[in-house]
Amino acid sequence: MRVKEEYSSTSENDTKKLVISNGAYAVCEMIEKLIDKLEHARLTG
After folding, report:
1. How far is Cα 28 from Cα 43, in angstroms, rounded to an integer?
2. What is the structure's pLDDT at 15?
3. pLDDT at 41
4. What is the pLDDT of residue 4?
5. Which pLDDT does position 34 carry in this prediction?
6. Residue 28, Cα to own-chain centre: how many angstroms?
7. Cα dihedral across residues 10, 11, 16, 22: positive or negative
8. Cα 42 from Cα 6, distance rounded (Å)
9. Quick check: pTM over 0.70?
10. Running along the chain, 45 residues long, what does each successive block of 10 average in pLDDT?
11. Domain total for the chain?
């Protein structure tokens, strides 16, 4: 029973880590797109 509890808590932590890393990846992608827009505006403007 104890082993099962440890396993479930570990998988929960892994899921949280996955969500956090996905969120960080999404933020990085948004920043890259924003930089692209700014550079494009600077070149055309």
Report:
1. 23
2. 83
3. 94
4. 62
5. 97
6. 8
7. positive
8. 54
9. no
10. 60 82 91 96 89
11. 1
The CA dihedral of 32, 38, 40, 45, to the nearest 10 degrees, is 180
Token representation of residue 1: 């029973």
Q: Which domain holds residue 33?
A: 1-45
Is the C-alpha dihedral spanning 30, 36, 37, 38 positive or negative?
Answer: positive
Q: DSSP assignment of the chain, as one string?
A: -HHHHHHHHHHHHHHHHHHHHHHHHHHHHHHHHHHHHHHHHHHH-
At position 9, the amino acid (one-letter code) is: S
Q: Is the dihedral of CA 6, 10, 12, 16 positive or negative?
A: positive
Give the type of residue at 43: L
Token readout for 12 is 């929960």
